[in-house]
Amino acid sequence: MDTQRVDGSMVSRRNVIVSATAGVAALVAAGAAGAARGKDADAAPPAAAPATGHPGHTGHAVPVAARAVAPFSVRMPVPKVLKPQSTKGDTDVYAITAKKAKVEILPGTRTEVLTYAGMFPGPTLRVRTGRTAVVKHTNDLGMGTVAHLHGGVTPAGSDGFPMDTVAPGKSREYTYPNQQRAATLWYHDHAHHMEAEHVYGGLAGFYLIDDPAQDSLRLPSGDYDIPIMLRDARFDEKGRLVFQLHDFEHRNTILANGKPQPYFPVAARRYRLRFVNASNLRTFTLRLGKDTQVAQIASDGGLLAAPAAVRSWRMTPGERIEVVVDFSRFKVGSKVVLTDAEAGPVMRFDVGRSATPDTSRVPDRLSTIPALPAATGKRKIVLSFDPVRNRFLINGKQFDQKRVDAEIKRGTTEIWTLTNDAGNFAVPHNFHPHLVQFRVLDRNGRPPAPAEAGVKDTVAVGPGETVRLQATFGPYTGRYAYHCHMIDHSSSGMMAQMKIV
Fold first, then answer.
1. How confident is the model at residue 356 (pLDDT cuts 50, 70, 90)?
2. Alpha carbon separation from 292 to 25, 66, 86, 285, 345 (Å, rounded)
3. Quick one: which H or E segment has residue 384?
4. CB under 8 Å to 261, separation ≥6 — which residues?
5. Residue 184 to residue 181: CA distance in whole angstroms
6. Which of 102, 319, 449, 454 is close enough to 315 for a disulfide, judged by CB 3.0 to 4.6 Å?
């Protein structure tokens, strides 16, 4: 990847010191700015809003690129669905190569990025529950890579453990049984110490599990089922992608499916929009138009029990949220802006045509959430930062592949209490365990909001917050990681290892 790479190996002491003095103030200022923008969401936006609100923000303005991109001047593409190379019985075989490619992100400029199959973002794998997918990953890059299916319930050998790298020029097959609920998942690189740079460089794509049993729900489908990968980026004056670890403040170009502030034409009918936050650090708080009410139908692990009427939805890195938007409530010719509370306009939906009769719907009941079995164990997980040694920690320790942090018997159910020990450093975190999906029991002692009441695999844990979750560990044995999915943090050691026995 032809990038401008700045201080990219470990967290810098300067950024941490800045965090202590500016982090909380930046968060407050960003919240106030977001609230102010909320009053005129449909007004003409700036080309790029300054990013604030994460430790590392210094308040210095840095050009994104020499040539500004006019808002809503490029169309958002829908990632291509990859076809299997072969099918035999209940198994589909796919092939993906990780390689460098030059793609047009900023109009008129070709930027070198890291890709799966030459695409940015990578191709979508669309599979069915109960059908096994075997994905052969070939590494055509100059460094080791690891493919992780985020949200996948997979055998340890196919999970993408951070140290199980595929060497340059080599291939590896990952087997995904897909014996789990239909859901919006995503796959991305997880090579330890390099995962932040690799995902930022472009190694990410959608993995959608469908279940024919849900067809009777008549949710929007086909051309009206749109996956949208959101992330931020920083470009230099030559249009090169710039990577710097913990560089939140300068990643102020917002991309939707790899395009800056794009538009997307829609018909005046219902659409199912599947969002994934593929940013390294940024949290999105999204709303449509002037507080348009939409129906949230799913989170990380699939459909909610019932739709939740929301006017905004919040996603930390790695989280997914699905909403159904009825664009028939807007007049043909309307231009409806999707806005982030901090970064400003993200993309625009152009209601350009009437639709044939819309037979889709959002039923009052969507799914049955699996019951919570009795818990047989409890654990405490503390997420923290050590300002003396400049280290991100879980339970006071950095990741060590030789150390097992939790040994858990297969099939047992545990309650984990997650605490963000902010201390004097208001550092936001979130939490993602591999292998298992979980239920949020409470946040700061209060029941989860409807949007968090479903099946999850990634959860926000803000400064000073405590979140309790419950998970059943299995069905596979072996070693699996759990970590903060603000992946600049996990690249810096905020990760641990559990062994299912």
1. confident
2. 30, 35, 44, 14, 15
3. strand 377-386
4. 45, 47, 69, 71, 72, 73, 254, 345, 346, 347, 348
5. 10
6. 319
Q: Which two tokens stand for residue 440?
A: 């949020």
253-256/259-260 β-pairing: antiparallel
Looking up tokens 């920690």 gives 393
% of the chain at pLDDT higher than 90: 82
- Identify the DSSP state of 370: P
Provide the token pair at 82.
């990859």
Residue 31 has pLDDT above 70, yes or no: no
CB 390 within 8 A of CB 384: no
> What mean pLDDT, rounded, does the chain reach?
88
Look at residue 64 and tell me whether its pLDDT is greater than 80.
no
Dihedral of CA 225/226/229/230: which sign?
negative
Instruction: Please state, in angstroms and rounded to a whole number, the distance separating the CA atoms of residues 86 and 152.
Output: 22
Strand partners, 248: none
Question: Interior CA angle at 169 toward 166 and 171, to 5°?
Answer: 50
Which candidate, 249, 214, 255, places its Cα nearest to that of 231?
255
Which run of H or of E encompasses 205?
A: strand 204-210
Strand ranges (E), 32-146: 86-88, 91-104, 110-116, 125-128, 132-139
Structure tokens at 308: 């939740």
Q: How far apart, in whole angstroms, are the C-alpha atoms of residue 200 and residue 365?
A: 37
Nearest CA among 162, 235, 198 for reference residue 482: 162
- Among residues 180, 194, 210, the alpha carbon closest in space to that of 243 is found at 194
Distance CA 435, CA 13 (A): 34
How far CA 321 is from CA of 129, 228, 269, 273, 309, in Å, comes to: 19, 10, 20, 8, 13
Which residue in 119, 121, 135, 207 sits closest to 171, CA to CA?
135
Angle, CA 227 vertex, CA 70 and CA 441 arms, to 5° = 115
Pull the structure tokens for residue 378: 């409890």
Longest alpha-carbon distance in the chain: 63
CA atoms within 13 A on the CB side of 275: 30
DSSP 432: E
Closest listed residue to residue 259, CA positions, set 133, 363, 141, 105: 105
The strand ranges marked E within 395-493 are 406-408, 413-421, 429-433, 438-443, 459-461, 466-472, 478-483
The arithmetic mean of pLDDT across residues 95-120, rounded, is 97
* Dihedrals phi, psi of 123, to nearest 5 degrees: -65, 150
The helix (run of H) or strand (run of E) holding residue 256 is strand 253-256
pLDDT tens-place string over residues 361-389: 999 999 999 899 999 999 999 999 998 88
